[in-house]
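Format notes (please read before filing issues)

Several people have asked whether sequences and structure tokens are stored in separate files. They are not. Every record keeps both together, in the order shown below: the sequence lines, then the token lines. Line labels are part of the format and must not be stripped during preprocessing.
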Amino acid sequence: MDGEQKKMEVSFEKDLKTRARALGDANVTLPKQGMSSEKILDLMQHATTEENVKWESGLVSGAVYHGQHQHIDLLNEAFAQYSISNPLHPDIWPSVMKFEAEVISMTANMVNGANTGGGSASCPDVCGATTSGGTESIILAIKAHRDYWRDNFGITKPEIVVGNSAHAAVDKACDMMGIKLIKVSLDAQTFKINIDALRAAIGPNTIMMYASAPSFPHGAIDPVRQMGQIALKYNIGLHVDCCLGGFFLPFGK
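Then the structure lines:
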């Protein structure tokens, strides 16, 4: 298996480098004379015209989730309006803070996590933050668990239990923060995390379990309700990665 995996890695790397080299000579040093604005935009236009064909044809798994050009035009215009803004300076761009707070509040309310609409909420103290993407979201979630269980329970050698289908950002986060990562098998039929294996992997230093909703490789939704019951029983955290399904699953039938 290791040999086959190495062959695949070499093949992927060669394929990616071949595609990149096909774009023309690479600038490996700062040129003595810069390009004109027109030349830079022309290079990008030429590259993206060819690259966009693949995802527009539906031949990708992930990466692009809403490819309608009307929506893309809206995004481009919005990005242009705030291209130099910085959320660290709400004194200069207060609208950025306002928009972020609104998005977080609407998201929390959508999943009954905040009492902002006059009704009841299952967790009225829920809060959140926007991030640059799924990887940063996972890293921050794991950091929050590490800090909480260290500060409140004195756990200095934390462990996290995940299924084999967990996003690679989990590996990155654990490597960055010195957390022991325990990967357990998936159910051979459903490709969901194996609950028995999960339960057996929990120990005194376990701070968090990780559920995919859905998982990136298989599109399977882990048994979140069962995992939640286990989390309550053993007083450990449960992070549900809804990067792909968070705005779809609440409306799924």
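For reference, the curators noted about this record: The two ends are 39 Å apart (CA to CA). The chain has a mean pLDDT of 89.
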